[in-house]
Design a protein that fits this description.
This protein is α+β, with helices and mostly antiparallel strands and 352 residues long. It is 19% helix and 26% strand. It contains 5 helices and 18 strands. Strands 1, 2, 3, 4, 7, 10, 11, 14 and 16 form a 9-stranded mixed β-sheet that branches. The chain has a 3-stranded antiparallel β-sheet with strand order 13-12-15. The chain has a two-stranded antiparallel ribbon with strand order 5-6. A hairpin with a 2-residue loop joins β10 and β11. The longest helix has 22 residues.
Length: 352
């Protein structure tokens, strides 16, 4: 019996990189979740800023910290074993640990309006916070403070929030692993999805050490550049072939964000969803959760939809919107010149 010759294996068809124009179309926003408001404060002197994600009526909160160099406030309150069930706002800020002061201004704004946890002698607003390191851009003595947090609350609304070089993303930089002179401008982005009448939205400030990649094609969107600065390097491939990195100061990066839903969730479920949201970071940032990142994601559940589609569906949704918001943070960023430092945007490196 004559054997048939083996058939040739077809080559792998790699996804063709796009110019990202379609990705800049409206992709929803965290404010599509009923009960959620967002406000930015941007200080143009450096630049730096802060962002508040507010749930005036309170929302069940969760958090998961994966980066090894986090800067946070009141995250222990969100542990399922601890007392407080709901929070009134989450603060995201630049300025590294100094930027945590912005949350004080958010607390003051909420207290003035009688919002917060009833402690009998008054209403105590619960405002967890996380910060990113943007001190390498401009004058490091300028950073968000309590007044900045208060101003972000004054600007808060349920309208679609601005993206790019604003709020906590104002001084964000992507891809510093081979030196900040070969990095690119990061920013803040938002996205949402709705399934069966339940909405999940994300707001992400991306200041990652690694590259931002398209989760659908694996193409690099923004990050470390080649020596001549004209093309994307692809950090993953560069590390695997042994390219030498620059010495890194711990904590000089970090991606932080908030994922909100109108599903009815418990505090345990909010914590699990925060964990699952990090899958979205892993799909859209490479490398991620490094020793020089303080990656921190919060979740908020307003319960406005009156239903819960199950954790399998919600987990898929939170990972998806997180990845989309990361890509939008990179695509919405704009070129920044700070002294001798020039940080191009993702669109600057795309062919027309």
């Amino acid at each position: 019996m004559k054997r048939s010759s083996p058939q040739p294996v077809p080559p792998i068809q790699r996804a063709r990189p796009t110019t990202w124009r379609n990705s800049l179309r409206r992709a929803g926003a965290i404010t599509d979740v009923p009960g959620i408001e967002v406000g930015h404060f941007t200080d143009p002197r450096r630049p730096t800023g802060c962002t508040v994600v507010m749930a005036r009526e309170g929302a069940v909160g969760g958090v998961d910290v994966r980066g090894a160099a986090p800067g946070t406030r009141e995250t222990d309150l969100l542990h399922p074993l601890n007392l407080v069930e709901k929070v009134q706002a989450i603060t995201l800020a630049g300025g590294s640990a100094w930027g945590l002061d912005a949350a004080t201004g958010v607390v003051r704004w909420l207290e003035e309006r009688g919002l917060g946890y009833d402690v009998k002698v008054g209403r105590l607003p619960i405002v967890p916070a996380a910060v990113l390191f943007d001190l390498l851009v401009g004058d490091a003595r300028i950073r968000p403070d309590a007044a900045a947090g208060y101003a972000a609350c004054e600007a808060a609304s349920s309208r679609r929030p601005a993206e790019g070089n604003v709020g906590a993303g104002a001084g964000a930089v992507i891809g510093k692993i081979f030196g900040i002179d070969r990095a690119m401008k990061g920013g803040i982005g938002t996205a949402s999805v709705t399934v069966g009448g339940v909405t999940v939205g994300a707001l992400i400030a991306c200041n990652a050490l690694g590259d931002v990649v398209d989760p659908d094609t694996a193409a690099v969107v923004a990050g470390a550049r080649t020596l001549n600065g004209r093309r994307l390097l692809d950090t993953r491939q560069a590390l695997l072939r042994g390219d030498a990195t620059r010495p890194l100061l711990a904590g000089t990066n970090t991606t932080i964000g908030v994922i909100a839903t109108d599903a009815v969730i418990s505090k345990v479920q909010a914590t699990k969803l925060a964990q699952m949201a990090h899958d979205g970071l892993a799909r859209s940032i490479n490398p991620v959760h490094t020793m020089s990142d303080g990656d921190t994601l919060f979740t908020l559940g307003t319960g406005r939809s009156g239903q819960n589609p199950g954790m399998m569906v919600l987990g898929t949704m939170v990972a998806e919107v997180t990845a989309r918001a990361v890509v939008r943070a990179a695509l919405s960023a704009r070129r920044l010149v700070a002294g001798d430092l020039v940080l191009p945007s993702a669109l600057d490196l795309q062919a027309p």
